[in-house]
Amino acid sequence: MPVRPAVVLVHGMRTSSAIWAEQLRAVRDAGYEAVAVDLPGHADRQDETFTHSSAVATIDAAVAGLDPRAPLVVVGVSLGGYLALEYGARRPERLAGVVAAACTAEPLGKPVRLFRDVARAVHATHRSLRSSFGTVLQNARQLTGRPVPTFPRSVVVSGEDHPRPSWHVVTEMLTVLSRTSAIGNLRQVAAPVWLVNGQRDHMRIDERRYLAARPDARLVVVRGAGHDVNTDAPHAFNRTLLSVLHNVEARAVRSAPAV
């Protein structure tokens, strides 16, 4: 009897593995092995530089910890969706399926570079404000002789144990994405692909281009959800994910040699 599929979950930009809590619970309750990763530049890895190579190595490390006999399904949302496609194109071995959510906007070229430049400006402004505010605080401390609050480096995301990465990390990630063709990666993935989008997601702009590039990809649009589709509509997302795993498992059974 074939081993059941195993799942690696990859989070989006400026979040962490914590966003997958509902999916980990549902998948494990259904009897599947699953792990969620923290990407470089995020959570406890905020001091690490984000690159495609380091992100792929992160997924590799997660895969290495799973049952080596299990068919592999890589699931990603937003940045993680792009990485899931990247991983599928680079690592066809063992791969039995890719679920790429909230990433049907081709990142290659000018639009992402423009957003990166905005992020860079935000980071520069934030750094300048920190410096100015720090001077004000130092003067206040000297005048009053009393401690004053410090300027926060980042904010904590609801439901997560780690602060969000600063905007310089965003510029690193967008610089990497601006050199990447998700549609090119999509064409190279040999395994079945599911594209999952929230109905209200602004990243749906190239859905038709993705489907034209990969006619056998299956598109799932989750009603009422936005960009953060797995947390906006966790039950609907879980139903889709479990359906994917059942599909992969059924194919593995059909292809298993007769005993």
What does this 3D model show about the protein?
It is a single chain. The protein is of the alpha/beta class. It is built from 9 helices and 6 strands, in the order E-H-E-H-E-H-E-H-H-H-E-H-E-H-H. It has a single domain (6-108, 168-255), classed as Alpha/Beta hydrolase fold, catalytic domain (Rossmann fold, 3-Layer(aba) Sandwich). Strands 2-1-3-4-5-6 form a 6-stranded parallel β-sheet, sandwiched between helices. Helix 3 links the parallel strand 3 (72-77) and strand 4. Helix 1 packs across helix 9 (234-255), helix 3 packs across helix 6 (182-188) and helix 4 (110-144) runs antiparallel to helix 5.
Features:
alpha/beta, Rossmann fold, about 260 residues, 6-stranded parallel beta sheet, about 15% strand
Question: What's the N-to-C terminus distance?
Answer: 9 Å
Tell me about the largest β-sheet: 6 strands, parallel
Number of continuous helical runs = 9
CATH class category label: Alpha Beta
Q: Give me the count of strands.
A: 6
In CATH terms, the superfamily is: Alpha/Beta hydrolase fold, catalytic domain
Low-confidence stretches: 111-137, 147-160
Number of domains: 1
Helix content: 40-55%
Percentage of residues in strands: 5-15%
- Rg from Cα: 20 Å
Shape: globular
Mean pLDDT: 82
Task: Quickly give the CATH architecture.
Answer: 3-Layer(aba) Sandwich
Strands ordered across the widest β-sheet: 2-1-3-4-5-6
Order of helices and strands: EHEHEHEHHHEHEHH
The CATH topology turns out to be Rossmann fold
The helix-and-strand class reads alpha/beta
